[in-house]
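ingest -> validate -> predict -> emit
validate: passed (alphabet ok, no gaps, 250 aa)
predict: started
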Amino acid sequence: MTQQQAAQSLQFSLVIPAFNEAALLPRLLDSIDAARTRFRDGSEAVEIIVADNASTDATAEIARARGCVVAPVVKRCIAAARNGGAAVARGTMLCFVDADMRVHPETFNVIADALADARVVAGATGVTMERWSPGIVATWIAMIPFVWITGMDTGVVFCRRADFDAIGGYDEERLIAEDLDFLRRLRRLGRPSGQRLTRATQAKAISSTRKFDTYGDWHFFTRMPRIGWRLLRNPQLRDDFVHRYWYDDR
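emit:
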Protein backbone atom coordinates (compact mmCIF):
# COMPACT_ATOMS: atom_id res chain seq x y z
CA MET A 1 0.00 0.00 0.00
CA THR A 2 1.33 3.43 -0.92
CA GLN A 3 1.53 6.26 1.59
CA GLN A 4 -1.35 8.01 -0.16
CA GLN A 5 -3.51 4.88 -0.07
CA ALA A 6 -2.73 4.39 3.62
CA ALA A 7 -3.77 7.97 4.37
CA GLN A 8 -7.02 7.48 2.44
CA SER A 9 -7.83 4.26 4.33
CA LEU A 10 -7.22 5.80 7.75
CA GLN A 11 -10.40 6.07 9.79
CA PHE A 12 -9.54 6.07 13.49
CA SER A 13 -7.01 8.04 15.49
CA LEU A 14 -6.71 6.67 19.02
CA VAL A 15 -5.07 9.17 21.39
CA ILE A 16 -3.39 7.98 24.59
CA PRO A 17 -2.41 10.77 27.02
CA ALA A 18 0.58 9.47 28.95
CA PHE A 19 2.80 10.66 31.78
CA ASN A 20 5.39 8.13 32.99
CA GLU A 21 3.34 5.17 31.79
CA ALA A 22 6.22 2.85 30.83
CA ALA A 23 4.91 0.16 33.20
CA LEU A 24 1.34 -0.05 31.89
CA LEU A 25 1.53 1.28 28.34
CA PRO A 26 2.72 -2.04 26.80
CA ARG A 27 -0.33 -3.98 27.95
CA LEU A 28 -2.64 -1.28 26.56
CA LEU A 29 -0.82 -1.39 23.23
CA ASP A 30 -1.11 -5.20 23.20
CA SER A 31 -4.88 -4.87 23.59
CA ILE A 32 -5.04 -2.20 20.88
CA ASP A 33 -3.09 -4.43 18.48
CA ALA A 34 -5.67 -7.17 19.07
CA ALA A 35 -8.52 -4.74 18.40
CA ARG A 36 -6.86 -3.42 15.25
CA THR A 37 -6.47 -6.97 13.99
CA ARG A 38 -10.19 -7.58 14.56
CA PHE A 39 -11.26 -4.34 12.86
CA ARG A 40 -13.21 -5.28 9.76
CA ASP A 41 -11.64 -2.49 7.67
CA GLY A 42 -8.10 -3.55 8.52
CA SER A 43 -5.46 -2.57 11.06
CA GLU A 44 -4.08 0.12 8.74
CA ALA A 45 -7.33 2.05 9.25
CA VAL A 46 -6.31 2.81 12.84
CA GLU A 47 -3.42 5.01 13.96
CA ILE A 48 -2.19 5.11 17.55
CA ILE A 49 -0.97 8.40 19.00
CA VAL A 50 0.76 8.60 22.37
CA ALA A 51 0.60 12.16 23.70
CA ASP A 52 3.72 12.15 25.86
CA ASN A 53 2.96 14.63 28.62
CA ALA A 54 6.54 15.44 29.74
CA SER A 55 7.37 11.90 30.84
CA THR A 56 10.72 11.27 32.51
CA ASP A 57 10.68 7.50 31.95
CA ALA A 58 10.71 5.36 28.80
CA THR A 59 7.11 6.11 27.76
CA ALA A 60 8.05 7.80 24.48
CA GLU A 61 10.67 5.20 23.59
CA ILE A 62 8.23 2.34 24.16
CA ALA A 63 5.59 4.09 22.05
CA ARG A 64 7.96 4.66 19.14
CA ALA A 65 9.25 1.10 19.29
CA ARG A 66 5.66 -0.13 19.01
CA GLY A 67 5.00 1.98 15.92
CA CYS A 68 2.95 4.70 17.60
CA VAL A 69 3.00 8.35 16.62
CA VAL A 70 4.47 10.27 19.58
CA ALA A 71 3.15 13.79 20.18
CA PRO A 72 5.23 15.63 22.82
CA VAL A 73 3.08 17.84 25.07
CA VAL A 74 4.94 20.04 27.55
CA LYS A 75 1.99 21.51 29.47
CA ARG A 76 1.28 19.16 32.41
CA CYS A 77 -2.46 18.92 31.97
CA ILE A 78 -4.38 15.89 30.75
CA ALA A 79 -6.70 18.05 28.66
CA ALA A 80 -3.65 19.55 26.93
CA ALA A 81 -2.29 16.04 26.32
CA ARG A 82 -5.55 14.94 24.73
CA ASN A 83 -5.60 18.03 22.54
CA GLY A 84 -1.93 17.61 21.64
CA GLY A 85 -2.58 14.09 20.43
CA ALA A 86 -5.64 15.20 18.47
CA ALA A 87 -3.62 17.97 16.83
CA VAL A 88 -1.54 15.43 14.88
CA ALA A 89 -4.38 12.97 14.30
CA ARG A 90 -5.33 12.16 10.71
CA GLY A 91 -8.42 10.03 11.25
CA THR A 92 -11.99 11.14 10.66
CA MET A 93 -12.97 9.55 13.99
CA LEU A 94 -11.13 10.37 17.21
CA CYS A 95 -10.89 8.11 20.25
CA PHE A 96 -9.28 8.78 23.61
CA VAL A 97 -8.23 6.17 26.17
CA ASP A 98 -6.16 6.42 29.34
CA ALA A 99 -2.83 4.61 29.40
CA ASP A 100 -3.73 2.41 32.38
CA MET A 101 -6.68 0.81 30.58
CA ARG A 102 -7.00 -2.06 28.12
CA VAL A 103 -9.42 -1.97 25.22
CA HIS A 104 -11.91 -4.62 24.14
CA PRO A 105 -11.04 -6.64 21.01
CA GLU A 106 -14.18 -5.34 19.24
CA THR A 107 -13.56 -1.69 20.14
CA PHE A 108 -13.16 -0.27 16.64
CA ASN A 109 -15.99 -2.31 15.12
CA VAL A 110 -18.39 -1.23 17.86
CA ILE A 111 -17.39 2.45 17.70
CA ALA A 112 -17.59 2.48 13.90
CA ASP A 113 -21.14 1.12 14.15
CA ALA A 114 -22.06 3.74 16.76
CA LEU A 115 -20.76 6.67 14.70
CA ALA A 116 -22.39 5.32 11.54
CA ASP A 117 -25.66 6.33 13.19
CA ALA A 118 -26.33 9.99 12.33
CA ARG A 119 -28.32 10.32 15.54
CA VAL A 120 -25.15 9.84 17.61
CA VAL A 121 -22.82 12.79 18.23
CA ALA A 122 -20.31 11.02 20.52
CA GLY A 123 -20.02 8.47 23.27
CA ALA A 124 -17.91 6.16 25.39
CA THR A 125 -17.54 2.43 25.84
CA GLY A 126 -17.73 2.30 29.60
CA VAL A 127 -15.39 0.15 31.67
CA THR A 128 -15.14 -2.89 33.83
CA MET A 129 -12.52 -3.12 36.57
CA GLU A 130 -9.47 -5.39 36.58
CA ARG A 131 -10.36 -6.52 40.11
CA TRP A 132 -13.35 -6.20 42.41
CA SER A 133 -13.81 -5.74 46.14
CA PRO A 134 -16.68 -4.51 48.36
CA GLY A 135 -15.30 -0.95 48.25
CA ILE A 136 -14.89 -0.97 44.47
CA VAL A 137 -18.36 -2.45 43.98
CA ALA A 138 -19.83 0.24 46.24
CA THR A 139 -18.04 2.94 44.24
CA TRP A 140 -19.32 1.41 41.00
CA ILE A 141 -22.91 1.38 42.28
CA ALA A 142 -22.61 5.00 43.42
CA MET A 143 -21.59 6.05 39.90
CA ILE A 144 -24.35 4.22 38.03
CA PRO A 145 -27.12 6.83 38.54
CA PHE A 146 -24.90 9.61 37.15
CA VAL A 147 -24.10 7.55 34.05
CA TRP A 148 -27.75 6.61 33.47
CA ILE A 149 -29.04 10.15 33.95
CA THR A 150 -26.41 11.97 31.89
CA GLY A 151 -25.48 9.34 29.32
CA MET A 152 -21.83 10.23 29.96
CA ASP A 153 -19.45 7.35 30.58
CA THR A 154 -15.74 6.62 30.64
CA GLY A 155 -13.52 4.08 28.91
CA VAL A 156 -12.76 4.80 25.25
CA VAL A 157 -14.32 8.19 24.50
CA PHE A 158 -15.09 8.80 20.83
CA CYS A 159 -16.42 11.42 18.42
CA ARG A 160 -16.09 12.63 14.85
CA ARG A 161 -13.14 14.88 14.08
CA ALA A 162 -15.43 17.60 12.75
CA ASP A 163 -17.35 17.73 16.04
CA PHE A 164 -14.14 17.77 18.08
CA ASP A 165 -13.02 20.82 16.11
CA ALA A 166 -16.46 22.45 16.39
CA ILE A 167 -16.31 22.55 20.20
CA GLY A 168 -12.59 23.39 20.35
CA GLY A 169 -11.48 20.09 21.88
CA TYR A 170 -10.85 19.67 25.59
CA ASP A 171 -10.86 22.60 28.01
CA GLU A 172 -7.24 23.04 29.09
CA GLU A 173 -8.28 25.19 32.05
CA ARG A 174 -9.62 22.07 33.72
CA LEU A 175 -7.16 19.95 35.65
CA ILE A 176 -9.72 17.20 36.18
CA ALA A 177 -13.14 16.12 34.87
CA GLU A 178 -12.15 17.38 31.43
CA ASP A 179 -13.65 14.27 29.86
CA LEU A 180 -17.08 14.88 31.40
CA ASP A 181 -17.00 18.51 30.29
CA PHE A 182 -15.97 17.37 26.81
CA LEU A 183 -18.93 15.00 26.50
CA ARG A 184 -21.28 17.59 27.96
CA ARG A 185 -20.29 20.12 25.28
CA LEU A 186 -20.61 17.50 22.53
CA ARG A 187 -24.08 16.63 23.80
CA ARG A 188 -25.01 20.31 23.65
CA LEU A 189 -23.57 20.57 20.13
CA GLY A 190 -25.71 17.69 18.91
CA ARG A 191 -28.94 18.65 20.64
CA PRO A 192 -30.30 21.10 17.98
CA SER A 193 -30.09 18.41 15.31
CA GLY A 194 -31.51 15.68 17.54
CA GLN A 195 -28.19 13.93 18.17
CA ARG A 196 -27.36 12.26 21.46
CA LEU A 197 -24.56 10.62 23.36
CA THR A 198 -24.33 6.84 23.28
CA ARG A 199 -22.79 4.16 25.48
CA ALA A 200 -21.05 1.49 23.42
CA THR A 201 -21.01 -1.02 26.25
CA GLN A 202 -20.53 -4.03 23.97
CA ALA A 203 -16.85 -3.04 24.00
CA LYS A 204 -16.14 -2.05 27.60
CA ALA A 205 -12.53 -1.20 28.37
CA ILE A 206 -10.77 -2.72 31.37
CA SER A 207 -9.72 -0.08 33.88
CA SER A 208 -6.79 -0.50 36.22
CA THR A 209 -7.39 -0.22 39.94
CA ARG A 210 -4.14 1.55 40.73
CA LYS A 211 -5.95 4.47 42.43
CA PHE A 212 -7.72 2.00 44.70
CA ASP A 213 -4.46 0.12 45.23
CA THR A 214 -2.77 3.35 46.32
CA TYR A 215 -5.49 5.14 48.27
CA GLY A 216 -7.65 2.27 49.47
CA ASP A 217 -10.74 0.56 48.08
CA TRP A 218 -13.06 2.90 50.02
CA HIS A 219 -11.32 6.19 49.27
CA PHE A 220 -14.14 7.51 47.07
CA PHE A 221 -16.25 7.66 50.23
CA THR A 222 -13.59 8.70 52.74
CA ARG A 223 -11.65 11.31 50.74
CA MET A 224 -13.57 12.34 47.65
CA PRO A 225 -16.60 14.07 49.23
CA ARG A 226 -14.35 16.69 50.80
CA ILE A 227 -12.36 17.20 47.60
CA GLY A 228 -15.52 17.28 45.49
CA TRP A 229 -17.13 19.94 47.67
CA ARG A 230 -14.05 22.15 47.46
CA LEU A 231 -13.88 21.75 43.67
CA LEU A 232 -17.58 22.55 43.27
CA ARG A 233 -17.01 25.79 45.14
CA ASN A 234 -13.90 26.59 43.11
CA PRO A 235 -13.40 24.57 39.85
CA GLN A 236 -9.94 26.13 39.38
CA LEU A 237 -8.73 24.96 42.79
CA ARG A 238 -5.08 23.88 42.76
CA ASP A 239 -5.38 21.36 45.54
CA ASP A 240 -2.32 19.38 46.65
CA PHE A 241 -4.35 16.19 46.77
CA VAL A 242 -5.69 16.81 43.25
CA HIS A 243 -2.13 17.03 41.96
CA ARG A 244 -1.01 13.95 43.86
CA TYR A 245 -4.05 11.91 42.85
CA TRP A 246 -4.30 12.82 39.16
CA TYR A 247 -0.83 14.03 38.21
CA ASP A 248 2.06 13.21 40.52
CA ASP A 249 1.50 9.60 41.59
CA ARG A 250 3.92 8.16 39.02
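Strands lie at 12-18, 46-52, 69-72, 93-96, 101-102, 120-124, 127-129, 157-160, 196-199, 205-207.
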